[in-house]
Amino acid sequence: MANLKEIKLQIASVKGTQKTTRAMKLVSQAKLKRAEELAKRSRVYAQKLDELVSEIAYEINQNKVGGSESRFVQADLPVSTVDIVCVTADKGLCGGFNVSTLKTTLALIREYKEKKVAVRLRVVGRKAIDFLKYNGIEMKDEVIGLSASPDYKKAADFIEESMRDFAEAKTDRVVLVYNGFKNMLTQEQRVIQLLPVDISTVEPRELKSSIEYEPEGHEELLNTLLQKYVQYSMYYGLLDSLAAEHSARMQAMDNATKNASERVNELTIQYNKARQESITTELIEIISGMEALK
Amino acid sequence: MDTMKLEIVTPTGPIFSGDVKSATFPGAEGEFGVLPEHASLVSLLDAGVIEIEKSDGTKESIVIDSGYVKVDEEKTLVVVEGAVPIVGENESEIAKAIAEAKELVEKAGNSDFAIANVEAKVEAAAKTRF
User: Which candidate in B42, B65, B76, B78 is best for mutational testing of the A interface (most A CBs within 10 A)?
Assistant: First the structure.
């Protein structure tokens, strides 16, 4: 039988934890609003940029003219090395948010290994870095602090190397993995093929004419456009991931707060029982003492 | 008359989406107009004014700083860095939009010629409306 004081202390401690989780929930809620707003505004642009680039890539692939020599738009590129860019949060306490991204990444790595494809990992977020280091998985590049406050310039710098390596044929594919924001309650694993440009999303259709480029010489135009596309995709990935992180944390903290109040209830009942019991014992002692004196 | 779909998006959200009769773009190699059934074209856009003739015949001007346009037979997709539509209920709102547009173009670091060109166009467009 736990004594009264012990239970009292436990109740106080659970209540303290509850205060923290409630505060964290409120903080996440406020941050989520901002992050969601930012992601929402960028979403249309990211989607349209994606549409623009993939349609151009599709047409180039269909016509086999012009850009066929550019690696960026070659859909049927043989793959021997792949760059996986994995984005997680810097902080934990957000439920399965980081773990599910890591699971997806590991599954992806296994898949590529089975196909005898070399994998290079480029990681954003302290949680993933710690996990991979602990498991002795080698990382090509790592960055902390970017996922907590996405910045276009930094995101562009980070992905720059992937792009350069791809252009120099050191890698044959660049894949972005992160946990994206679906709605307030759910997150969604996103695995996006950045390079070469994914044309599987384009609805197949007959082309009436081949594309003309202005200024002429498609290389320059295409290259700046692709650079923009890759950089923005990376940046949008970070924004989306951040919004998802906050929504995941909000939920996790909400659950924690609920669990804490349940626990407080349980402990209070236990405390009351223990108190009643001690009163009863005392009474019995007094009564039996009096009986003995008679 | 036929119409085509036109969409204009910026990093801060969509600016325009709808059916139009024609559109004029400030291409890097000079201004060009697009009508429905235009052949596929991808072009870099410089700072300037996109002039749209909507399906109901009204005209709209949108000032942009830089971006890309992709035209094909069915639709035209414009992806730009920054854009200010010159619209408003009354003259003061229009004047405000024009000032914003000027700022946008000046920030893009273009030549004085380009800035003057945009100004002239926007003011002309605003005048025809009021």
Answer: B42
